[in-house]
Specification:
The complex is a heterodimer.
Chain A lengths: L1 H15 L3 H31 L1 H7 L2 H4 L3 E2 L4 E2 L2 H32 L2 H16 L2 H27 L15 H25 L3 H9 L4 H11 L1 H17 L2 H6 L17 H8 L6 H38 L1
Antiparallel strand pairs in A: 1-2
Helix pairs in contact in A: 2-14, 3-14, 5-8, 5-11, 6-8, 7-8, 8-11, 9-10, 11-14, 13-14
Chain B lengths: L1 H49 L3 H5 L13 H31 L4 H14 L3 H16 L4 H26 L2 H9 L4 H29 L26 H10 L3 H36 L1
Classes of the chains: A mainly alpha, B mainly alpha.
Chain lengths: ~325, ~290
């Protein structure tokens, strides 16, 4: 009885309404979509599993202890988290106005013959491998900072605690500048796309009321605010996770220091720099925990950014 | 009256000045953004070209102290690594993208779309750590396979999303024409929709491959690097990017110069990939007509 029922359901679903090939094809492609879905869960689990030893040993102290001492096997990530946040946030502060300028120029005021090659150049900048940025950082940017920028800053702005200390070249300042160069094309190309999708009628309405070009752009920028915020967060996520270029110029020292001249460390650069040298299991486990923290932070930032950009797209589609 | 006129004129003048200054600032921003690009290209080409010769492509790296030598093993290694990455990443990406565009108009589809975007923002070093725990730890040694898997994970989001976007651009009338002829949906999708969209999909694949070719962080502790000739996927393997990193940090001037040459070769390799795909897709497109 039951078997008959199963066969009837199967035959109905498989062979009457559907082509068996269609059914299989849908399930096959769905399987691969599921792979993408499971991949992110697997990544989180693998890192949690790998860092269990360090989580058991240090608990939440891992995040607030300011001592990172591989020799005595004491692992506190506070200076590393500090270095990550300071370098990426300051890079963002410098890069954001510049990328808004680039995006506004490309989408609002560039003549058509200039827009295409310029957009292409900006995209090219985003496509350069980060290790080449790092190479350029070591041999061009760092000497320039050591010989010109840091002496200048310490001469004229030494009343600020941020510009004191020996001009060493490798350090926070170099990391900030190189991150700035790297996230600028990313933010500006997203913002340009967002600005381009603002309905043309907004600009025309402003211009018809006698607004100047800049005043009409202000209205467009206001309209695109959530998208710009989303792009900013994507840029921040990229800066936080950027590895090679930062590792090569930041000086790799786990110490909290107000001065931007001092060497520092970021989560990504600790992993890149120390993973192959890590000898004990606890050391490796702590590095994997750092990767887990980095993973959680970037996933959260990216998820929020995507939701912002999506909500905006949906709003404009409705209008 | 005259006073009001004067205020009005002053305001207009102020607004015009603001307009002029702000539009000028956008031009300045563009210039500031372009300058680093010019610098990077200038240094990579001028410094890289001095050591660029045939030896670089066919010789092995020389030990410390001996000058000359090349990076034949790293060039082959990079190609093998992106080959493994593409071999795994391309099919997964294309199939998942096909699902999203053809069947993904539901909650599960939106979720996968969202997670793909999130995955594309995960730092490459984190992907390297995952590949380490997934492949290197069970196998107990570093291998090209582990590096390739890390690169595949990095490629999948790019390929999935571009495939989806491109397939969505295929006109609905083409699908309907196929279905009207009585061709089942899976055949319509594979033989008509995917074939029409092939050119765009290839661009997505190219983008994924060229990004993978430039990755360093996920290879540091998966493929590791190798100073000797190796093509086995179960052994550590050299790559151009890891060589650039090692040679840039090294205290030998000779090695530093070779790092610039490797950077130039890497950029040439990436450009070559894009050129190759352009030629491939162009001839494909012509024979289709």
């Amino acid at each position: 009885m039951r078997r008959k029922w199963v066969i009837r359901i199967l035959s109905k679903n498989f062979f009457k309404n559907h082509n068996p090939g269609d059914f299989l094809f849908e399930r096959l492609t769905m399987f691969f979509a599921l792979v993408v879905f499971l991949l992110i869960l697997l990544m989180g689990y693998e890192m949690y599993d790998g860092s269990r030893m360090s989580i058991d040993k240090f608990g939440w102290n891992f995040l607030v202890n300011s001592e990172w001492d591989p020799v005595q096997e004491i692992f506190g990530a506070l200076p590393i988290i500090y270095g990550t946040l300071v370098s990426s946030i300051l890079a963002l502060v410098i890069a954001l106005p510049l990328s808004l300028g680039v995006a506004v120029f490309l989408s609002e005021s560039a003549p058509p013959w200039l827009e295409k090659p310029l957009s292409y150049l900006v995209e090219l900048l985003a496509g350069i491998p980060s290790v080449i940025y790092g190479l350029w950082g070591i041999f061009v940017l760092v000497p320039w900072i050591r010989n010109d920028v840091e002496p200048f800053l310490s001469q004229h702005l030494d009343f600020l605690p941020f510009f004191r200390g020996a001009p060493y070249g490798f350090g926070m300042l170099a990391a900030i500048l190189i991150l700035c160069v790297m996230i600028l094309p990313i933010i500006s190309s997203i913002v340009r796309d967002v600005l381009k999708s603002v309905p043309q009628s907004q600009r025309e309405a402003a211009l018809a009321l006698g607004a100047t070009k800049w005043e009409s752009i202000k209205i467009v920028l206001l309209e695109a605010k959530p998208g710009i915020l989303g792009a900013t967060m994507l840029g921040l996520g990229r800066a936080i996770g950027e590895t090679m270029a930062v590792t090569m110029v930041i000086g790799n020292t786990a110490k909290i220091s107000l001065s931007l001249f001092d060497p520092s460390y970021t989560m990504a650069s600790v992993i890149a720099n120390e993973f192959t040298e890590a000898t004990s299991d606890l050391y490796i486990s702590s590095l994997i925990e750092l990767a887990l923290v980095l993973f959680v932070i970037t996933v959260a930032i990216n998820a929020l950014a995507r939701l912002l950009v999506w909500s905006l797209e949906r709003k404009w589609k409705k209008n | 009256m005259e006073k009001e006129l004067a205020t009005f004129k002053f305001r207009l003048w102020r607004r015009k000045i603001t307009n002029f200054v702000m539009m000028g600032l956008t031009v300045v921003a563009v210039l500031v953004a372009i300058i680093p690009l010019i610098f990077i290209f200038y240094y990579t080409i001028s410094k890289g070209i001095t050591y660029l010769n045939l030896d670089f492509f066919i010789q092995m790296p020389k030990p410390v102290g001996e000058s000359g030598g090349g990076m034949a093993n790293a060039i082959v290694g990079t190609l093998i690594l992106i080959g493994i990455g593409g071999g795994i990443g391309i099919p997964v990406g294309i199939m998942a993208g096909t699902y999203l565009s053809e069947f993904g108009n539901n909650k599960f589809g939106s979720l996968v779309r969202f997670l793909t975007d999130v995955l594309s923002g995960v730092p490459s070093i984190v992907v390297g750590v995952v590949a380490y725990t997934l492949v290197v730890v069970p196998m107990k040694h570093f291998s090209a396979l582990a590096g390739g898997i890390a690169l595949a994970i990095l490629m999948i989001p790019t390929i999935t999303r571009t495939t989806e976007e491109i397939i969505k651009l295929v006109p609905h009338s083409l699908r309907e024409a196929g279905l009207a002829l009585g061709i089942p949906k899976w055949k319509t999708t594979l033989l008509i929709v995917l074939k029409t969209a092939w050119k765009g999909i290839a661009t997505g694949i190219l983008l994924g491959l060229s990004r993978a070719a430039g990755e360093t962080a996920p290879l540091l502790f998966t493929a590791l690097g190798n100073r000797f000739w190796s093509t086995s996927i179960f052994q550590p393997i050299a790559s151009l990017t890891v060589y650039i990193y090692d040679y840039a940090k090294a205290p030998f001037e000779d090695w530093n110069n070779q790092a610039w040459t490797a950077a130039l070769v890497l950029i040439l390799l990436i450009s070559l990939l894009s050129l190759l795909f352009k030629i491939l897709t162009r001839s494909k497109y012509k024979t289709n007509r």
